[in-house]
Amino acid sequence: xxxxxxxxxxxxxxxxxxxxxxxxxxxxxxxxxxxxxxxxxxxxxxxxxxxxxxxxxxxxxxxxxxxxxxxxxxxxxxxxxxxxxxxxxxxxxxxxxxxxxxxxxxxxxxxxxxxxxxxxxxxxxxxxxxxxxxxxxxxxxxxxxxxxxxxxxxxxxxxxxxxxxxxxxxxxxxxxxxxxxxxxxxxxxxxxxxxxxxxxxxxxx
Length: 205
What we know:
Blueprint: H1 9-33, H2 36-43, H3 47-53, H4 57-77, H5 85-102, H6 104-115, H7 122-145, H8 154-170, H9 172-179, H10 187-202
Helix pairs in contact: 1-2, 1-4, 1-6, 4-7, 5-8, 5-10, 6-8
């Protein structure tokens, strides 16, 4: 049986360039508004060259979403059931906020997919993602049972962390417009605010 040819450095470079360019185009225009021609032009490649690596726009988009979902789940996977509950939850908030700061295109791409009804990752949402959140909810409930944090609905706690951190990526223009020209970086104050809010919410009474 013939062995597959090893991927060359140029092939890795071109594939990475295509995915990076596609991330720009998809995060700005959405799936329906993006075209292969736009992605090829942004990547600095011809359309036939791009299609050598990915046979369609759908294939590029699916590859991006697959990589993105893993990246999105990693901060929740890092939550340590054996750690200090408040410290672990605050660290998760910080990691999610850092992702909004460092990966705004990825956040917008993910948000666009969800808004469209998640036609390409619905199975992952109801499978891998739900299983991970359910496992995390059990840990949060256990911490509350032990009196180490205040009793909260664990699923809605996770939802609130998502919404309050990803807002700074998905609505960056709105955030900066409201804060005004004097604010060049909203993230330090956002982190301080969220730490205070979740600390007050989760500290046992």
